[in-house]
Design brief:
Distance between the termini: 17 Å
Oligomer: single chain
Number of helices: 1
Strand content: 35-45%
Number of domains: 1
Largest sheet: 3 strands, antiparallel
Length: about 60
């Protein structure tokens, strides 16, 4: 999950991994002025370069309603 979190006048973009039991695991954090494509792409590229498995067969989401 990618989300922007405001801390005062700063915006931090965070990448979270969520396990099967719903536990959130912080994977990466960057400061940006907005949640724009460049900031998110750079964050995801950094995660991949640090060894995060981004196999689409393992990437899925489910939102409970």
């Amino acid at each position: 999950m990618i989300d922007g979190v405001h801390f005062g006048r700063h915006l931090c973009v965070v990448a979270l991994g969520i396990s099967i039991d719903g536990t959130k695991h912080p994977l990466g954090l960057v400061e940006g002025s907005t949640e724009n494509t460049t900031v998110v792409t750079d964050l995801l590229t950094d995660l991949r370069e640090r060894g995060l498995d981004n196999d689409p067969a393992r990437s899925w989401s489910y939102r409970r309603r």
